[in-house]
């Protein structure tokens, strides 16, 4: 948790220091107010004794009446008290405490009550002002911490390769970015508002309480010990459950995300019950954890009530005995009661934080795991930029295996594509076609061998430079919420409207965009769910063409297009992007038969390489695929 505070900015630390200072001032006001409360109680008692001397006791009342008779029939109580105030009471054998009390009663007035009451109001106002300022500053610091950390973790995740994203899983990364950071924020907020004041209050109150009465101090100490033991047991029971709860939350987020993304498939197969059962299973497990922690934490309230009432009763009972012995007065007992309450509440706040801390600590650890993870794909310290050849890509004996995998998924792949060439990849499902093209943009790094672009190893380029040279059309057409125009301009926000329309025309997207109500300003829902699969693919192709790249990678991007549109898009690309090198992954023979070179993959290995006609005669696998889609006459066999 403390490691997370490294994300605080300089002005946040200034505010933290200011919060500590205001906390000390707040505690000072609270402690001083107790002194004035004691003075107020004494002033009221003394004024009552001043006006009603008989309340002091029979012996004193007899002396008071004798002095009044001595002064004459017209003498008033004030005259008698004035006489007593001038008398040498020490010569009468009275103790210094008794003399002080008698002098105070003799001079008692409503002014003392107003003074003590006014000081209490002023100190209470000061306490309130400090609390308001502390709450405002703490809220700002906690919000700043959450905002900066959330931004930092978002940037970190954006820099991850697919290996790191798969390591954490998407639902877990979402939970860490939202729920975990929120837990750390709330704990930090409460810590600055409560924990800073708790130790200051406890130490200050303990120092004051020891000077009041040893017997009452022992009573308060026993209560605090019982409270700490009880809260420690509660904390020991619930702390291990918090970590488990966060894992269940990841699971629920994953199932919910899966269900929403696959809602069409779920409904198509009437699998709602299956999905609900899977969700309920994870939800019920989390519910049991939360019920357990809720019940255990529910013991806090009755435990607090029993201990607070028990300590109050014990203090008043012991106080009554001490008052009866004449050791202390009622004002001291009342002040002690308030100090004991302050101490107990301070320990309660500390223990509450100790209970919240483990949950926040688990969340902070999960956040730090992401922040401390180094991407397996990093930019070189001295990046190289292409200067000579343009549009040339070469695979040199490339092999690749996924992290933690035991075997290579691609083995010894070699080919070269020159400027304007079209190289296609075909093979059965799982043969490594998509993995191969993912290596071009360094979504993964090769395990061995080299990928050269314009004669430079792509690992010697910065990722930004590399990806600015490559237009990528994914296997699953993915659009972002916005408009048609914003999606086409996604890779180049400064693109002109004419260039947007040209890119759409090349991708054959203009024919349906022009029919929309707002044309290129028509809205696109998140994921492109308000357009068809073929329309999504065409907009994705337009997005890739719009950045005017040297290379375009098509990862089975024509599969959702009808044959006529497929042919038209390829013709447009050939005419308008003739200097652009194209890498195409496809399942259709018709999509790739015009390619300059076709590479046939099986189990990650090249089993055929050449033109369409060459492969028909020297690669049986390719011939089998071709015959499964076209007749011998169409293939010219």
3D structure, described in words:
- By secondary structure, this protein is α/β, with parallel strands linked by helices.
- The chain is built from 24 helices and 12 strands.
- The protein has helices at residues 10-51, 58-71, 77-86, 96-106, 110-159, 162-168, 170-195, 197-210, 214-261, 263-268, 272-298, 300-325, 330-372, 433-438, 463-469, 484-488, 497-506, 510-513, 533-546, 563-576, 589-592, 612-618, 620-629, 632-635; strands spanning 393-400, 410-417, 422-427, 448-453, 456-457, 470-473, 482-483, 523-524, 551-555, 581-585, 597-602, 605-610.
- Strands 6-9-10-3-11-12 form a 6-stranded mixed sheet. Strands 2-1-4-5 form a 4-stranded antiparallel sheet, with no helix packed on it. Strands 7-8 form a two-stranded antiparallel ribbon.
- Strand 11 and strand 12 (605-610) form a beta hairpin.
- The longest helix is centred in the first third of the chain and has 50 residues, at 110-159.
- It is rod-shaped and about 145 Å long.
- The protein starts with 9 loop residues before the first helix and ends with a helix.
Layout of helices and strands:
Blueprint: H1 10-51, H2 58-71, H3 77-86, H4 96-106, H5 110-159, H6 162-168, H7 170-195, H8 197-210, H9 214-261, H10 263-268, H11 272-298, H12 300-325, H13 330-372, E1 393-400, E2 410-417, E3 422-427, H14 433-438, E4 448-453, E5 456-457, H15 463-469, E6 470-473, E7 482-483, H16 484-488, H17 497-506, H18 510-513, E8 523-524, H19 533-546, E9 551-555, H20 563-576, E10 581-585, H21 589-592, E11 597-602, E12 605-610, H22 612-618, H23 620-629, H24 632-635
Parallel strand pairs: 3-10, 3-11, 6-9, 9-10
Antiparallel strand pairs: 1-2, 1-4, 4-5, 7-8, 11-12
């Amino acid at each position: 948790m403390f490691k997370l505070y490294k994300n605080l900015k300089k002005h946040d630390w200034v505010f933290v220091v200011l919060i500590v200072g205001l906390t000390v001032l707040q505690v000072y006001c609270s402690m001083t107010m107790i002194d004035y409360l004691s003075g107020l109680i004494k002033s009221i008692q003394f004024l009552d004794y001043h006006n009603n001397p008989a309340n002091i006791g029979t012996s004193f009342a007899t002396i008071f009446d004798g002095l009044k008779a001595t002064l004459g029939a017209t003498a008033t109580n004030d005259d008698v008290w004035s006489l007593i105030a001038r008398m040498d009471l020490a010569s009468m054998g009275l103790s210094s405490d008794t003399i002080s009390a008698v002098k105070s009663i003799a001079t008692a007035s409503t002014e003392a009550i107003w003074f003590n009451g006014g000081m209490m109001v002023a100190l209470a106002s000061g306490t309130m002002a400090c609390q308001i300022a502390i709450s405002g500053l703490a809220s700002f610091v906690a919000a700043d911490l959450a905002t900066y950390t959330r931004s930092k973790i978002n940037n970190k995740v954006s820099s991850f390769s697919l290996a790191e994203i798969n390591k954490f899983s998407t639902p877990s990364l979402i939970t860490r970015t939202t729920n975990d950071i929120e837990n750390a924020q709330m704990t930090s907020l409460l810590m600055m508002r409560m924990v800073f004041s708790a130790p200051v209050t406890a130490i200050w109150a303990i120092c004051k309480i020891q000077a009041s009465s040893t017997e009452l101090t022992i009573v308060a100490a026993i209560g605090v010990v019982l409270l700490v033991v009880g809260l420690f047991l509660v904390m020991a029971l619930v702390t291990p459950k918090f970590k488990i709860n966060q894992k269940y939350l990841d699971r629920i987020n994953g199932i919910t995300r899966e269900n929403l993304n696959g809602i069409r498939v779920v409904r198509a197969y009437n699998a709602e019950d299956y999905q609900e059962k899977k969700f309920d299973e994870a939800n019920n497990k989390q519910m049991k954890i939360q019920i357990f922690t809720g019940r255990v934490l529910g013991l806090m309230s009755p435990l607090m009530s029993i201990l607070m009432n028990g300590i109050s009763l014990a203090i008043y009972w012991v106080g009554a005995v001490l008052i009866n012995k004449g050791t202390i007065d009622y004002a001291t007992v009342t002040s002690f009661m308030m100090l004991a309450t302050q101490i107990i509440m301070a320990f309660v706040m500390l223990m509450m934080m100790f209970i919240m801390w483990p949950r926040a600590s688990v969340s902070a650890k999960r956040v730090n795991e992401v922040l401390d993870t180094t991407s397996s794909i990093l930019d070189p310290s001295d990046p190289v930029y292409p200067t000579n050849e343009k549009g040339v890509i070469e695979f040199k004996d490339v092999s690749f295996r996924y992290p933690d995998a035991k075997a290579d998924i691609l083995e010894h792949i070699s080919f070269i594509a020159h400027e304007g060439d079209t190289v296609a990849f075909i093979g059965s499902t799982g043969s490594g076609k998509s993995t191969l093209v993912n290596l071009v943009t360094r979504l993964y790094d090769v395990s061995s061998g080299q990928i050269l672009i314009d004669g430079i190893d792509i690992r010697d380029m910065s990722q930004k430079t590399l990806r600015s040279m490559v237009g990528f059309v994914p296997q699953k057409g993915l659009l972002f919420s916005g408009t048609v125009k914003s999606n086409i301009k996604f890779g180049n926000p400064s693109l002109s409207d004419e260039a947007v329309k040209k890119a759409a025309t090349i991708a054959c997207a203009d024919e349906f965009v022009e029919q929309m109500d707002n044309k290129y300003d028509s809205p696109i829902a998140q994921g492109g769910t308000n357009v068809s699969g073929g329309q999504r693919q065409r907009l994705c192709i337009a997005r890739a063409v719009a950045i005017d790249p040297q290379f375009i990678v098509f990862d089975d991007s024509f599969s959702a297009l009808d044959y006529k549109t497929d042919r038209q898009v390829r013709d447009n690309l050939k005419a308008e992007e003739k200097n652009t090198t194209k890498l195409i992954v496809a399942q259709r023979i018709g999509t790739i038969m015009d390619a300059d070179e076709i590479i046939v993959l099986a189990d990650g290995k090249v089993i055929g390489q050449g033109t369409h006609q060459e492969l028909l005669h020297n690669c049986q696998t390719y011939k089998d695929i071709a015959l499964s889609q076209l007749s011998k006459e169409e293939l010219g066999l």
